[in-house]
């Protein structure tokens, strides 16, 4: 199993949180801390506080808080490994791991599964406009933009069609 070295984690965690977060969100100084509208939920009044002394953040609206790594895990929906790797690439920190690396076969299998999942999602999205599910979603106040943004699709007994569609795509 591959793990990230403690040195790499310390290096990423010690990046100046104000500098890192200011690339993703607009933050303003208020005394010894910085504030912003929380990027983790919708709000109109700033309740997202960044403390450069402790290198942490805390939102008093949604209750989420943590360090730079936690922020990217929550904001970009990343795993710990992905967040650390992203920050290392972005800020030129050496990314070191210990243990066995995934071989190409495992990575290819993972990539194939992601492609199958994406194809299934696209298939179910394509069935949405002509379905009863679409009419129900509109009646409940969903807009076409929301349906598209959240990639809402339709399925009932379409599994045979999905199988045929995936087979035609070479899966």
How would you briefly describe this protein structure?
By secondary structure, the protein is α+β, with helices and mostly antiparallel strands.
Oligomer: single chain
Proportion of residues in helical segments: 40-55%
Mean pLDDT: 88
How many strands, which pairing sense, and closed or not: the largest β-sheet? Answer: 5 strands, antiparallel
Q: Largest beta sheet: what is the strand line-up?
A: 2-3-4-5-6
Order of helices and strands: EHHEEEEEHHEHHHH
Beta content comes to: 5-15%
Structural class: alpha+beta
Distance from N terminus to C terminus (CA atoms, Å) equals: 28 Å
Number of E-type strands: 7
Low-confidence stretches: none
- Provide a count of the helices: 8
Principal-axis shape? flat
C-alpha Rg (nearest Å): 21 Å
Could you characterize what this model shows?
The protein is an alpha+beta fold. Helices cover 47% and strands 12% of the residues. The chain has 8 helices and 7 strands. The chain has helices at residues 6-13, 17-21, 68-75, 80-91, 104-127, 132-139, 144-149, 159-168, and strands at residues 3-4, 28-30, 33-36, 48-51, 56-59, 65-66, 97-98. The protein has a 5-stranded antiparallel sheet, covered by helices on one side. Strands 1-7 form a two-stranded antiparallel sheet.
Please describe the topology of this protein.
Blueprint: E1 3-4, H1 6-13, H2 17-21, E2 28-30, E3 33-36, E4 48-51, E5 56-59, E6 65-66, H3 68-75, H4 80-91, E7 97-98, H5 104-127, H6 132-139, H7 144-149, H8 159-168
Antiparallel strand pairs: 1-7, 2-3, 3-4, 4-5, 5-6
Helix pairs in contact: 3-4
